[in-house]
Amino acid sequence: MNMFFDPHFWDVKTSAELWVLVGLLIFIGIVIAVGVPKMVAKALDDKAAKIQSELDEAARLRAEAEAMLAQIRLEKAEAEAQAAEMLAAAEADARRLEAEAKVRLEEALTRRQALAERRIAQAEAQATTEVKAAAAELAAKAAEDILAARLAGAKSDPMLDAAIAQIGDKLN
């Protein structure tokens, strides 16, 4: 401020600062007259509007991403629930199939045991029949031999003929 009170400051020939001040004031006046502040303000407003639109777009994208994340979490929960249901159903089917297989196995074992018992009974009956037949055949042969020996000594014996007829009836 002291320079304004200096008497040499107002001397046009020697004061360069005065001319710089005047030039600066003229330049500022031209800048204002041309509308540079309005252009700068408009450019700043445009930039602010662009930034605001980008922020709005980012907020919209974030909301959309959060909605998608919520949807994915819901789908994941549904898929997990469905998988749990499928697993439970599979376990139930496995238990049911196991029970059915046990029942079928027990039935098959019972049938095989009954079949084996029938075969054993048949084999026993057949063996008994064969033993009886062999015993009867052996008894008949022995009786025949005894009778043949007696007959050789006597021509006809009515008691012997009756016994032979009874043996024939009993063997059949």
UniProtKB/TrEMBL annotation:
Its function, per the record, reads: F(1)F(0) ATP synthase produces ATP from ADP in the presence of a proton or sodium gradient. F-type ATPases consist of two structural domains, F(1) containing the extramembraneous catalytic core and F(0) containing the membrane proton channel, linked together by a central stalk and a peripheral stalk. During catalysis, ATP synthesis in the catalytic domain of F(1) is coupled via a rotary mechanism of the central stalk subunits to proton translocation.
Q: Which organism is it from?
A: Brevundimonas bullata
Name the chain's protein: ATP synthase subunit b
Q: What is its main location?
A: membrane
UniProt keyword terms in alphabetical order: ATP synthesis, Cell membrane, CF(0), Coiled coil, Hydrogen ion transport, Ion transport, Membrane, Transmembrane, Transmembrane helix, Transport
Keyword match Ion transport: yes
Where is this chain's protein located in or outside the cell?
Answer: Cell membrane; Endomembrane system
Which InterPro entries does the record match to this protein?
ATP_synth_b/b'su_bac/chlpt (IPR002146)
Q: Which GO terms describe its molecular function?
A: proton-transporting ATP synthase activity, rotational mechanism
Gene Ontology terms: cellular component: endomembrane system; plasma membrane; proton-transporting ATP synthase complex
